[in-house]
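Hello forum,

I keep getting stuck at the same step: I have a sequence, I want structure tokens, and every attempt I make locally crashes halfway through. Rather than fight my setup again tonight, could one of you with a working pipeline run this one for me? It's a single chain of 489 residues.
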Amino acid sequence: MLPLSDSESQINFEHCDRKMTISNLVKAFQEIIGDANVLISDDDKAPFLVEWRDKFKGATPMVLRPGSTAEVAECVKLAAEHDLKLVPQGGNTGLVGGQIPNPDSTEIVLSLCRLNKIRSIYPDGYTITVDAGITLQAIHDVAEKHDRLFPLTLASQGSCEIGGNIATNAGGTAVLSYGNTRDLVLGLEVVLANGEVWEGLRTLRKDNTGYDLKQLFIGSEGTLGIITGASLKLYPAPASIEIALVALDSPEKALSLLSLAKNHAGSMLTGFELMPQSGMQFVCEHMEQSRFPFEAQHPWYVLIEISAGTKDIDLAGLTETIFTEAFESELLRDGLLAQSKAQGEDFWRLRHGLSEAQKFEGGSIKHDVSVPVAKVPAFLKEAIAAVQEAVPGCRPVPFGHMGDGNIHFNITQPKGADKAEYLARWDEVNRVVHSIVASYDGSISAEHGIGILKKGLLAEVKSETEMNMMRAVKNALDPTNMFNPGRIL
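Reply #2:
Ran it on my machine without issues. Output:
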């Protein structure tokens, strides 16, 4: 390792015990991971410094791209030796700023993008072990080749990486049947703050030997260690799938439809996504390959997916039964059953386009919240009225995973409003929405995490006992606050 000289041009790193030169620091990391994988030019660093919505922008003296767990460990050891701060980053698709370095260039980004291999797959054991930097889509593709399913499904799955999904405990559209990411992880490999590697890549379904340590890192948002590998659960690939898009009057009727569908389909109900007319209109106007599928507009829509692992189940007949009872109970205004795989993908494209389509309508103040499933309609009614009173002319676009109570309560600016002035009211509008969420015993972060965006809100929804427990875990695993300082806590 090259010494860090004090005689050349210097940079101050916050909390470091001394000044150090960038040139020697770069050389030291280059010795570990190679010249090409220590990015120092503005152009090379740029993709790692901006969150895709442009809400968070950071700066860093360098971006590290190690290519193996051993290289990650050596980078961490070097950082620990000189009291540097590291920001682990996956596919940079996070929505709360946890993956973006701070703007004063005192944190180094460590990207996992080169750790992108499938380590092993055992179809008969229904497990797959992967590097943390592999994309979610790549895992889907490999599982499908072996007639298996990895059920975590996100709009960003072509670019998000599994390590980031695990670090944020990502949710997605299949939670009501398969659970969150937390429920899909069997084992982890993690680089700790002292550079040691915890080899926890077990694929056991039962292991009752003390603390379940992997759960500490799932949802920790990179603040406790760097996930470098994961063993994951697989499921039988669906032998048949039925996808429907229905139109209805209200979230109340959507809740009744959810109950009806679950009564008939049980765990085969793998998707139940609520969408408002405003969001559907945005998608059809702005997203390519999207068109409005109904002859008339309706207040609300639900995308329903039912799947079975065996062809012995008559899914078409089951879906027809649900449709028939729903129409007889006057729950539906209209309904479309996908007649092909392509049409089913078209229906899902409408749902997955909701987040991106809002960008074309100006500023959007976003909330990732959850309430008990039975309270979703009441929450929506109260929250929509409250934000429209607070910001006259605003356009609420609440959508999401009604089957598990997670609603992305987004609010698009009034037509013709100044975007910057509208977004300046972010905290004010957050307080309105989050106070209503709290009254329903809900959560201010259902699946996106805390990061930087919601750090100031955490103590308002967690007890002092809970906050102290989290601080104790952080202090035990990362006593020098190396990993993602200032996130969550």
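Confidence is low (pLDDT under 50) at residues 1-12, 14-19. If your local run keeps crashing, start a new thread with the error log.
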